[in-house]
Design goal:
Number of domains: 3
Keywords: GTP-binding, Hydrolase, Membrane, Nucleotide-binding, Signal, Transmembrane, Transmembrane helix
Shape: rod-shaped
Largest sheet: 9 strands, mixed
CATH superfamily of the largest domain: P-loop containing nucleotide triphosphate hydrolases
Pfam family, one: GBP_C
Organism: Sorghum bicolor (Sorghum)
Structural class: alpha/beta
Transmembrane segments: 568-586
CATH architecture of the largest domain: 3-Layer(aba) Sandwich
InterPro entries: G_GB1_RHD3_dom, Guanylate-bd/ATL_C, Guanylate-bd_C_sf, Guanylate-bd_N, P-loop_NTPase
CATH topology of the largest domain: Rossmann fold
Distance between the termini: 147 Å
């Protein structure tokens, strides 16, 4: 057995090693890329087919997304064939065959924007920061539009923490004019800290002048002289624009610095083949000083109050690129809109919450007051947290337009709810008035009570913009109902009195056999049917004082706050009928011979003493 295990042991070990190798390969395929694969330059932004706009490159974004620590960016911009890629390789201590591609032909080597895949880890203010080095396509190369160059410059300006402006020999007018976008960004965002948000601090501008001799002047003095205003006696528009940029750059003096770097060697086409010992010693010394300067001023990129890791930076890049590609030319206003979008959403949310807290419908003046209060709070929040100084007005107008849209919707909803509520109350009152028109026992007091209650409940419950129109409808309906009721009231009451007199005749003669009641009922009936028709017209009857007395008596009997006879008429009649029936059939029998105090009807055969014959 022991010999068998020994025979199979090498095979088992080999199989285990194969499985481990397969698992490792699978893990490498599914996990992070090999660090050696990241030791190269990656494009993050490429030109489109027309070479006018920019598009993202996924392979460069994937290299960025894997970074988990805060990111800082050192970008280099400048004219084409000015040595930007070689400079970056020098800062990264890379040879030309390993680092960024370096070209010596007339066309530019770098297309779009590239980054070095492996960031340089630095300690900045006690925190670990991953510094990405960024190479850009040079200006003024063949076959490109100025708009494309502006987009490259603008994107590098926004992304960079340190922006190295690589210029050969001197600072030209065209070099200053290209800083217009950087100046606009600085004026919009620099030092703009409101509430809990910071948009982003503009890049530290590093003027890098590649020049051997400065003729007794420091490079800072040369840059300062180049930034002084140029006389413009002829009113040249271009000179005015450049002078404005000069003024803004002078204000931004604490955000820029200058550095000179001599030529590394006279034979520039062979620089990539040279080692440090073959380069000019002064150049090597200044290069190391430049590295230290960049390390001292680099800061992590902060956007809206927080640092960015790889995933955040890739998302930020996508937002900025979308804004810069918007329209025919890149604008600072589009960037301001991007950063103010979240703030606009918060301001609108504050406004909506205030307006939604009001139960509709409400009076128009109350809604207007709430709108003004909510609008004021939203504007205060926007003023505290918005980004941009000059272009923020556009965002403010957009906020105003959005608030107006929401307010219009609230007005429509309030009008609808007001119409719905007023229509319901109007219909209730209309039904109430129709019911009062057909009372079994007409009562002016009951009609007036229902009329007043309807009017008061409508005035109290009907609110909002529809109230005025419904009040007019309500007044017309109530007036019409009152006129119709009064017209029918006298006729109904007269008919009821005639009917009542006939009923009393029947009751007095056949039910209770009360002779006086029958006589009074006959007198009332004859009076209503003959005398009034012979001597009074219908109109004069209703205005006669005697009729008023009858009406007052009728109102007292028919309706009072305690007893509504119209509602209880049938139960009362049933109860009285039952009482009369009980009294007639089971009431106490009178003793024979007792006289009656009232003239009741008696049968003659009961009073006769004669015996009945068969």
């Amino acid at each position: 057995m022991g010999r068998g295990r020994g025979r199979w042991a090498p095979g088992i070990r080999a199989a285990a090693l194969i499985l481990l190798a397969v698992a490792a390969a699978a893990g490498a395929a599914a996990g992070d890329p090999d660090p050696d694969e990241l030791e190269r330059a990656f494009p993050i932004v490429e030109p489109d087919h027309g070479h006018t706009k920019l598009r993202l490159s996924e392979q460069g974004l994937e290299a960025i997304r894997r970074i988990e620590t805060p990111i800082a960016v050192v970008g280099v911009i400048g004219p084409y064939r000015s040595g930007k890629s070689f400079l970056l390789n020098q800062l990264l201590s890379l040879s030309c065959d390993k680092g960024f591609g370096v070209g010596h032909m007339r066309d530019t080597k770098t297309k779009g924007i590239w980054i070095w895949g492996t960031p340089v880890e630095m300690d900045v203010d006690g925190s670990k920061v991953s510094v990405l080095y960024l190479d850009t396509e040079g200006f003024e190369s063949v076959g490109k539009s100025n708009v494309y160059d502006d987009r490259i410059f603008a994107l590098a300006t926004v992304l960079s923490s340190v922006l190295i402006y690589n210029l050969p020999e001197t600072v030209r007018e065209a070099d200053i004019s290209r800083l217009s976008f950087a100046v606009e960004i600085a004026e919009e965002f620099y030092g703009r800290v409101k509430g809990q948000d910071v948009a982003f601090e503009p890049a530290k501008l590093l003027w890098l002048i590649q020049r051997d001799f400065l003729q007794g002047k420091s490079v800072q003095q040369m840059v300062n002289e180049a930034l002084q205003r140029v006389p413009n006696d002829n009113g040249d528009k271009y000179i005015d624009e450049v002078n404005q940029i000069r003024d803004s750059l002078a204000v931004m003096g604490n955000n820029s610095t200058a550095f000179s770097l001599p030529q590394p060697h006279l034979q520039r086409t062979k620089l990539c083949d040279m080692e440090d010992k073959e380069l000019e010693p002064l150049y090597v010394k200044r290069r190391e000083q430049l590295k230290q300067l960049v390390s001292s001023i680099v800061k992590p990129k902060i956007v809206q109050g927080r640092t960015l890791n790889g995933k955040d930076f890739a998302s930020f890049l996508q937002q900025i690129l979308e804004a810069l590609n918007k329209g025919e030319i890149p604008s600072t206003g589009s960037l301001v809109e991007i950063f103010n979008k979240a703030i606009l959403d918060r301001c609108l949310k504050v406004y909506r919450e205030k307006m939604d807290g009001l139960g509709l419908p409400v009076p128009v003046d109350e809604l207007q007051k709430l709108h003004e209060m909510a609008n004021g709070e939203a504007r205060i929040l926007f003023d505290k947290q918005h980004f941009g100084k000059h272009h923020a007005a556009q965002s403010a107008l957009k906020l105003e337009d959005e608030i107006k849209k929401v307010y219009r919707n609230v007005l429509l909803a309030n009008e609808y709810q007001s119409s719905k509520l007023c229509e319901a109350r109007f219909s209730e009152c209309e039904d109430k008035m129709d019911h009062l028109q057909v009372l079994k026992l007409p009562s002016m007091a009951k009609f007036n009570a229902g009329f007043t209650h309807c009017n008061q409940s409508f005035v109290k419950d009907c609110v909002g913009p529809a109230k005025e129109s419904y009040e007019r409808r309500m007044s017309k309906m109530l007036a019409k109902s009152r006129a119709l009721f009064i017209k029918e009231y006298n006729n109904k009451l007269f008919n009821w009195l005639v009917t009542f007199s006939l009923v009393m005749v029947v009751i007095g003669r056949f039910v209770i056999k009360f002779f006086l009641l029958e006589i009074v009922a006959w007198v009332m009936f004859i009076f209503l049917e003959t005398y009034t028709r012979m001597f009074w017209s219908a109109e004069s009857l209703y205005y006669n004082p005697a009729w008023h007395i009858i009406v007052s008596s009728w109102e007292i009997i028919v309706y009072s706050p305690i007893l509504d006879l119209d509602r209880w008429a049938i139960p009362i009649v049933i109860m009285l009928s039952f009482g009369v029936f009980y009294w007639r059939c089971f009431g106490g029998r009178r003793k024979r011979g007792r006289g009656s105090l009232l003239p009741l009807y008696k049968n003659s055969y009961k009073n006769s003493s004669r015996s009945r014959s068969d």
